[in-house]
Amino acid sequence: MSVAHFLLAGLSIVLIDLLLAGDNALVIALAVRGLPQEQRRWGIICGAALAVVLRIGLTFAAARLLTLPFLKLAGGVLVLWIAFKVLVDVSEPPDAAPVAHRLLKAIWYITAADLTMSVDNILAIAGASNGNFGLIVFGLGLSIPFVIFSSNLLAKLMDRFPVLVYLGVAILARVAAEMILSDPFVESHWRPSTTIRYVVQGILIVGVLVLGTHLARAQSKHTAPHVDAD
Predict the structure, then answer these.
(1) Contact between 210 and 82 (Cβ < 8 Å)
(2) What is the four-CA torsion angle of 152, 156, 161, 164, rounded to 10 degrees?
(3) 152: buried, middle or exposed (CB in 10 Å: 19+, 13-18, 0-12)?
(4) Could you give the 3-state DSSP secondary structure of residue 36?
(5) Is residue 7 classed exposed, middle or buried when 0-12, 13-18 and 19+ CB atoms within 10 A define those classes?
(6) For 25-49, how does the pLDDT look when each residue is reduced to its tens digit (9 = 90+)?
(7) What pLDDT digit, counting tens, does each position of 171-204 carry?
(8) CA-atom Rg of the chain in angstroms
(9) Residue 30 in contact with residue 150, Cβ under 8 Å?
(10) What are the Cα distances from residue 46, in Å, to 13, 32, 89, 109?
């Protein structure tokens, strides 16, 4: 690969990272929102770094992975479950669980969702790098600061405007629906039309928001301190 091609590939990877960091940053911001500031920082760093390390290992198998039936279907269900759990966890008071437990749970959410949602991202970077392992590592490593900055910003915005949590969960539900409907098995046996795709996305978004909000309120009432009347 010539120097010019190498630099052009590097620039393409930077642009890909910028364009594709949004979904991953959203997952991280939702997962760490309930943590104290210091643990939030560590959750973002550890979750993003672990996901990138695992992404490097999956890069060379990404093209094959996309053709496996049921893989994207299972991944979509996992993202849907994470979106639901994140919404329910919003109702937990800060001291409902030890900080270490909440930190590990946030890292798990980040790593699982990031890997599940990133196969297309990995393919884009692998394609732009023309198979150059150094460029692949560069691209995936560069995604860490982009995602960390974006997720920090999103988490702070969610602190200030809690309604953004529901918007973020709705976006994750839409991503999950698209993953499920683009699974090779679903596409070959169902061949969903554009209208069906919109309907399924709408059903899953509304279902996660309604069920998650209801359960969160019930859990909040259950954990609220009881005050005896004098």
Answers:
(1) no
(2) 10
(3) middle
(4) coil
(5) exposed
(6) 777 788 877 777 778 888 888 887 7
(7) 888 888 888 888 888 888 888 888 989 999 999 9
(8) 19
(9) no
(10) 23, 11, 20, 12
- The pTM score is 0.68
Give 114's Cβ-side CA count (13 Å radius). 35
Token representation of residue 209? 């928001």
Structure token digits, residue 36: 């104290």
Structure tokens at 174: 């839409």
In total, the chain counts a number of residues equal to: 230
Residue 9 parent element (H or E): helix 3-32
Distance CA 218, CA 229 (A): 22
Short-list 190, 179, 173, CA closest to 68: 179
How many helical (H) and strand (E) elements, i.e. helices and strands, does the chain have?
10, 0
